[in-house]
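I hope you will forgive my troubling you with a question about protein structure. The record follows directly beneath this note:
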Amino acid sequence: MSDLFADNPHVSVLVSSVLYLRMCDERDGWAPTIHALAPRSRWQPFIGVLARCADCVSLFLFDIDGEMVVEAAEVDVCALSTQDIQVVDNSVFGRAFSFSVNLERVARAIDAESEHPETQRAMVSERRRASAKSMHDRGNFSPGSGGMLDKSPRMASQRQFRSAGERRRSRSMGHIVGATFQGQAMNNATSSMPNKHTEAPSMLYLATAKACERNTWVGHLRQHAQPPLMRASSAESRALLQFRVERSLWIKIHEAQGLPRTHTVAAVMLDGHLAAQSDEGGPRWDNASYCFGGLGPLRRGVQVAVWQRARRGADAGVVGCCHVPVPMLQRGHVYDGWYPLTYGDAASADLPLAAGVRPARHRGAAKRLAKRSQSFKSQGTVSSQSASATAAMPRAVRRFDSSAEVGIVQSFPFRVGDVRIQVRYDETVVLGNAYYQDVSALLLDTDPTLISKLAAMHPLSADWLVETATKIAIARGNVDGWIESLVCHEMALRQERDPTLLFRGTSVSTRAIDTLMKVAGLDFVDRLIGDAVRNIADNEYACEVDPMRLGDSDNIDVHWKALLRLLQLLWQGIERGARECPSILRRTFASIRSATQAFYGDSSSVVQVRYSCISSFVFLRLVCPAMLSPRAFGLVARAPSAQALRTLTLLAKGIQCTANLSDFTAKEPHMQPMNGFVQHCIPRLKLFIDAISTLDGPQISDRPGNLWTVDGAHELAVFCAFIYAKRSHIRESLTAELCADSPSPGHCTTMP
């Protein structure tokens, strides 16, 4: 894609790949909130390019029209906020790894620029300079990833490097959900196809083929977007204090009551946009748990809508919708309760309503009302006075009159049932990195083992504490040295010298390395086994070799031949991916190996330990768990079938046995035919471990997309908030520890 910008040497391409845009059919138009459920909505491929020139970064979407590459859309990334770029839950688009870009901020900026162009240009330039300074202060990404500013002159109106001079489009871009052309709304004059829409939607939905590609795009876009900074006056220094507010939401939808026994979907709406949806099969949803981070102000709130899909005799639409009172929730507390589902209220005003929905207290009561009405007529109990009084009632008040006949008059909104929801909402005030320097220095430099003491004081929060401290070390850039200090500290306290038990249990160091591999190793594990896992998940190979699980018509010899062939292909991918190991993992593995070799010295176990100390992390805690749960590691968007998962389990057993430098024993006699492959691959395994745990030779730099989830200032803010909330317990624990080590109890009185 660099050839498209060859005529402008000041332009550099940051990311380029195939991006899929969510589009709707012309006859349907676009649906701003339920696009995923709209009929005939589909993904269309485009060439996505993120280009930078001077202080301007833009996202371009190119289409291929015959032999010509034409520009379809452009988004000014510098005008976006980091909160405008969100990862879309996999439940929304099924098998796509998607993310969204909110374009409302861009539209408002263009409207203001059209009214006051000179003033707005100066403001935009100032915002970009502030964004570059803030990005440098955040320190979230490696220095070699490219910045926002350079010495090149700014591109002249960005028209020099567009395709073929005259802008053309091969598709009606008004039907792309959220796309803009030059940051403006689509119009009929620029499209070669008829377009009935007067303006473009406010949300752009894009998708990639792999989760690692999606993470790379999100990382680069957030890197060059503006942080949502706010200012407040400081009482001490009388200076303006810059800060930002990070919002997160966790919500779990359990079940609904009072709804008809139909197949329904529970959808989570954030600010009127679909954020997640459950699998079809209500009124009880088992896996409808979602977490959203980096949210902006929820101006339209959070809604949970129960959606009914189209079936024979019934159209698709919303059965009921409830509003979650986020402003009333206490921050950091989990609320569990029943919320009323209403039909036709303001929360579901933009959603198509399902037909034939009745109120909860009258559902299934038509026959009883008919019998009651006939009884009233026969007894003459309905008086003309009551009938006239009922007719005089306003429509909003006259909901249902049991004295009338079965023809029930409905008024909006009305309650259709209840839904049980668990929800937690958090807001964290994040200051600049300079305010947290003392805390990070104490945690990582002064006493690297301080996190071990804090984890021992708070065992219920130990996993979270170690994970947060590891992300702080990643953002600071010294995670390998910090982990080496933890490993050496635990080695010094270790009494068991059996090398087969090394790093097999759960400790602070193993938790820290697990977190590092999940943050920086997702792209690496995808390069190792991603293609093989997706091939097995798509084709659903049957390779069962356990005689107790085989059917009457299954041929175990055929299954073994297929299983060994898949295992060979899987191992070839692992060997090829050794050179793709990120440098941050190489440095960490090298420090672990040096620490363990120093601990065992010249003993006979040192030869085995120099390989088992690395394989216990790479295979036991990364590769094999990714094979058993490929969706959790981003290898696939949907969970594999039971047959494909069984094949992956058998392959994981073979890989793990190879990583243990041993073969299958009599405990699993049906797996012993794999011993030949295991013995053949052990020498190749040692070469693989040597390649990823040494610093010699070329190394893969840490891409920003690998570390896109790490926000050092935010992690420090939540860590400080936790320490402040638990300060009494920490003070008491430290006082007791000092008293135990001190010969005189009088020293305990000086504890602050």
